[in-house]
């Protein structure tokens, strides 16, 4: 069976192709439009380019599809070309399927939490948290929490209400979102709040506890009045802070919402464990891009094994929709494939495509000869150079996992500020991830399981944060990527060489993009970005390039303007 899954809602559109139960290709629309989250594109998303990309990668046309499945929150413009054939399923169900089916668990508890999901059948009521149990190919709903969406409720347009179109009651994701926007970050920038929180203090944690309730039965409650009170509390706090104190005031607010987010999710998972008795847990929905909270769930609940797939937000519902189509709508049994789940689901680009991309900029880049590209790259990194690393199939989700990455030496403490300022053009407090050899992870981190997708943030072991200061966050933690030889042999080899030169099996890894633009997808994207930002070298599928000392600094030979879009930033890459 060939099944196309479409994902997203009013942002983060995506497509996934499943063939005979195996995820064969997945692509996020933003990587092709070059507009972060596809915000502001309106009707232009009707092209559904990600679907064409997946079909072409597998050598298929639309006539070869047995099913097209999406979730019922996708803007209908996105699936216009499949309107006659698409089957729509519940949004949270698509999230749950995206978390459970790619896992290695025969059965598992499944928790979905986001800002808002499908309508629940009542006026302006939408799902916010849903508890499931997965067993074999079945996903059974245990319980659902829903809230009132002011976008569909007249109160949002009443100037006396103090509410906005974006407010939701009883929404864990909405709680975090409100704090994020009130402290000055934009839409879908909750990752900045997570990155800022370690700089804060517990000054507001008691006050924040009055803005919601969470019982032992999994019921999160936050009324619209409490949302309004939260908003007013934050505004008063920031208005009272003098300019030199603004940063600390915002950090203290970020600390408070992060503290309570962790408390809420831990209680939710304890309830789910009590109901299911399972030792396995799958997490899905944009809330679980909060990798700090994920680690606390692992640490503070009885669950022994946790799986969060790398595209946990709305883009990942394409995977869930396609696999639900195969196992439930198609009636096919679930078998173990892609274990552990590979995040590298983009298509491959061959030598000709890479050579063509480099050739378009031949007056501005030149090849660096190397007998062993991996060893030469390790040497460049050990010398302090910053390298763009483009290899193989692109990874899904907002975090670069070693195929579309910017890499650097983590031993240099100043490297964090250098990359934030010189390369990524972003706030000074934003952290970078440590990519560590799987064989050496236990020597650096207090973490007893792999973190292949950068979705867990454990503490460094004593002394190891100092050894890799550029990737050690303010609270002595790191958003770990466990680098496996099986999942990514080329990146693993690079780390092995770097360790042989330096004694340190860790690299600084961040996404290959400038601030506000999507991660690069094509060789052309990679070369263009390399020339726009202040990288030292580019490794393009086994060839090293550097910038020519002389040559035009203008546009590429085609005359096209540089790609990119100064849009919103997701959970930090």
Provide the helix percentage.
Answer: 25-40%
How many structural domains are formed by the residues?
3
Low-confidence stretches: 155-159, 551-573
Average pLDDT over all residues: 93
Which fold name fills CATH's third level, the topology of the largest domain?
A: Nucleotidyltransferase, domain 5
Strand content: 15-25%
Could you give a short account of the major beta sheet? 8 strands, mixed
Supply the CATH class of the largest domain: Alpha Beta
Strand arrangement, major sheet = 13-20-19-14-15-18-16-17
Rg, rounded, reads 23 Å
Biased composition (Basic and acidic residues): 550-559
Domain Carbamoyltransferase C-terminal: 378-547
Protein name: Carbamoyltransferase
GO molecular function, one term: transferase activity
Descriptive overview:
The chain has three domains: 1-102 and 311-341, Nucleotidyltransferase, domain 5, CATH 3.30.420.40; 105-308, ATPase, nucleotide binding domain (Nucleotidyltransferase, domain 5, 2-Layer Sandwich); 351-547, Alpha-Beta Complex (DHBP synthase), CATH 3.90.870.20. It has 16 helices and 20 strands. Helix 3 (91-100) crosses helix 10, helix 4 runs parallel beside helix 7 (224-240) and helix 11 (351-359) packs parallel to helix 16. It is 30% helix and 18% strand.
